[in-house]
């Protein structure tokens, strides 16, 4: 039984648990439907988007996205420098016990900060390995053995607030992730930063900014690991959003296998390779050297993951940079990667020729 058939069986078995499709969801995009037999197919474009957890430090509270004033050991942006003289526990507001201290003279605040420093202040890579090894050794005697590394750090409660939920400014925070979008051939289009989370509103804002000046160049398909929730968000917020008329959102092939089969929106609208012939631009029928006919994906939906893998080699340097150096370095990396992809395309003789564009523009 194929994966598609198994998913279909599970959908039928759990029909009572299916989330309904959002209202006003378009049935299809006319520009992606197969043309009449004998008519030219034209061309389509696919973009691939993903977030990568390469970060730089920022102001200690999520509400502010401003860069640090001092990247050596600072915690505040220039606007909030005056808070250095205030207790780092929110919302205490009392002055620090002495210049250079991070908390006031309240003993519970001092104790909480001391424990925080013991847990995080000198957290080294060997220390993390040691903690993970100890946790795995303890887990071996339990019924459910951890399947991978973990690091669970618990802080003491502060009053009625659990230790992990205490708001504080005792340490600078970091942006959430680097967001990238590129063509399916691998050439980057744009990059940006998510400061608090890779939420659907932030991702949609990133897409809107990317194609703000080039609305007619929006991709025909957009592959994204959370495309089904992004599509649901767009339809729910604005049923007339231009994205619903120009682009079909699909989940990339690697993440699609992990999405719930009962997610009817994902299975019916975001399938990267439907086998029912509904998306001929996503699935090609080819004949191999042995004469056997089989179906294959028309696009590589994992180019973003391949870019992320390449960026891993620069992660340690980027984490220590200021926001300005980070932005400049990322932009240079994208230019280098684009040149690398273009050379690879040329070596494979897969670049789009002038004859191709003449046909597109109706000149031939």
Automatic annotation (TrEMBL):
UniProt cross-references to Pfam families, sorted A to Z: CxC6
Residue ranges occupied by any CxC6 like cysteine cluster associated with KDZ domain in the UniProt entry: 48-114
Organism superkingdom: Eukaryota
Region (Disordered): 17-36
Cross-referenced InterPro entries: CxC6
Protein name: CxC6 like cysteine cluster associated with KDZ domain-containing protein
Species whose genome carries this gene: Mycena venus
Lineage: Eukaryota, Fungi, Dikarya, Basidiomycota, Agaricomycotina
């Amino acid at each position: 039984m194929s994966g598609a058939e198994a998913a279909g069986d599970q959908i039928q078995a759990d029909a009572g648990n299916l989330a309904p499709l959002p209202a006003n969801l378009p049935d299809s995009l006319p520009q992606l439907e197969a043309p009449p037999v004998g008519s030219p197919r034209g061309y389509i474009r696919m973009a691939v988007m993903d977030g990568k957890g390469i970060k730089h430090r920022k102001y200690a509270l999520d509400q502010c996205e401003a860069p640090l004033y001092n990247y050596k050991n600072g915690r505040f942006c220039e606007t909030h420098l005056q808070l250095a003289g205030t207790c780092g526990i929110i919302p205490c507001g009392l002055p620090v016990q002495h210049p250079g201290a991070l908390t006031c003279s309240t003993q519970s605040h001092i104790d909480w900060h001391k424990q925080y420093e013991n847990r995080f202040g000198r957290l080294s890579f060997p220390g993390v390995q040691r903690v993970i090894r100890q946790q795995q050794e303890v887990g071996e005697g339990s019924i459910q053995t951890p399947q991978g590394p973990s690091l669970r750090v618990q802080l003491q409660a502060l009053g009625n607030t659990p230790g992990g939920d205490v708001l504080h400014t005792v340490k600078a925070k970091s942006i959430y992730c680097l967001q990238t979008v590129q063509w399916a051939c691998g050439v980057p289009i744009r990059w940006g930063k998510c400061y608090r989370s890779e939420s659907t509103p932030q991702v949609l804002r990133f897409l809107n900014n990317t194609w703000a000046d080039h609305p007619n160049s929006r991709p025909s398909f957009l592959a994204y690991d959370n495309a089904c929730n992004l599509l649901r968000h767009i339809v729910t917020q604005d049923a007339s959003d231009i994205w619903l008329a120009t682009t079909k959102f699909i989940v990339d092939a690697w993440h699609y296998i992990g999405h719930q089969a009962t997610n009817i929106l994902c299975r019916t609208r975001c399938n990267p390779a439907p086998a029912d012939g509904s998306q001929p631009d996503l699935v090609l029928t080819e004949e191999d050297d042995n004469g056997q006919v089989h179906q294959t994906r028309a696009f590589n939906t994992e180019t973003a993951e391949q870019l992320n893998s390449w960026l891993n080699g620069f992660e340690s340097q980027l984490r220590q940079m200021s926001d300005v150096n980070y932005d400049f370095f990322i932009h240079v990396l994208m230019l280098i990667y684009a040149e690398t992809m273009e050379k690879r395309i040329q070596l494979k003789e897969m670049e789009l020729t002038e004859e191709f564009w003449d046909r597109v523009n109706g000149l031939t």
